[in-house]
């Protein structure tokens, strides 16, 4: 199974998580800035990740390059999502960027895998919460970094299956 992990990152935290995911799935990781539309179409499993900025926005590299995703044919493609956020400082927009990416890939006909429980998180609202679950892996490296390894391992096992 070929895996491509595409992420946006400013301070390196999301990049680090993306590289860990790629390593565990024996895939490749790339920043959205250097990705092409073909990179979205060329993998058996596409993994997309973004931190949430400001009041629920995509990371700037994603904002600047969203057209690459929008131009891709994702019909029937398997996509997994991960998002980083700070549920203490931004409890009403926690991992909203992951929800924004979810909307984009679903509109393109992708099959999203890897929904996770909201249990153990302390937030009030999230665009990434659908049908009582997060649409992907939600991580908070600010106030819950001690839970990252376990959450990451469980999620990777889930999307592999």
Account of the 3D structure:
It is built from five helices and nine strands; from the N terminus they run βαβαβαβαβββββα. With 161 residues, it is of the alpha/beta class. The chain has one domain (3-160): 3-Layer(aba) Sandwich (Rossmann fold), CATH 3.40.50.360.
Architecture, CATH level 2?
Answer: 3-Layer(aba) Sandwich
Distance between the termini: 12 Å
What would the average pLDDT be, to the nearest integer?
A: 97
User: CATH fold name, please?
Assistant: Rossmann fold
Highest-level CATH class: Alpha Beta
Task: Write the topology of this structure.
Elements: E1 3-7, H1 13-24, E2 28-31, H2 37-41, E3 45-51, H3 60-70, E4 78-84, H4 96-107, E5 111-113, E6 116-117, E7 129-130, E8 133-134, E9 137-139, H5 148-160
Parallel strand pairs: 1-2, 1-3, 3-4, 4-5, 4-9
Antiparallel strand pairs: 6-8, 7-8
Short description:
With 161 residues, the chain is α/β, with parallel strands linked by helices. 33% of the residues lie in helices and 22% in strands. The protein contains five helices and nine strands.
